[in-house]
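Hello,

Our lab assistant flagged a job as stuck in the queue for most of the afternoon. It eventually completed. Since we weren't sure the result was trustworthy after the delay, we are filing this so someone can double-check. Below is the sequence as submitted and the structure that was eventually returned. Let us know if re-running is recommended.
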Amino acid sequence: MKVFPKNNYEFELTKGKTHAISELQKNTYITDSLTSQWTKKAFIGQVNENGFKIISSKRGRGAFCILEGKLKSQNGILEIRIHKAFRVMLSIVYLFPLIGFLIALFTKGKKIILSLIVPTLMSLIVFRFIFTEIAFRLMLKSGLNKLAGVIGIKKLKKRGTMQYMMS
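-- returned structure --
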């Protein structure tokens, strides 16, 4: 079981690598750090002749997912994962129920401790599999659609399934 979700894709470009890189450079605020900033461009990050490492420019939530891609002549690979800063914050949130359980373990009786096992596990499951997964999927879809529009992705493949993107 992965603590933090990550998706890998293969894609096919409509116009080729050089067009995709030039369009991505036009629509990216180039910086070394992947942090949210005020910009009118679609992405923030790094773009070079072989690939990119970008985040969405939406304030606050745009930095949740990092889109890292490598481009070849007509196709490429893409990895989408949760930004390291958000992984640290989510890890702290995941620890809250465990810390509460440990505090109760040392201060309360055995009957109360046994009754806290299920709520502790349920809160961990809710934080990971509902809140984190929903946020990741929403930001993934938003970032992927924006990227597909900018660089011209016509086919997107994830683990054996073919999804067609509008370009």
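-- support follow-up --
The delay was a queue issue, not a problem with the job. The result is valid. The chain has a mean pLDDT of 87. The longest helix spans residues 110-151.
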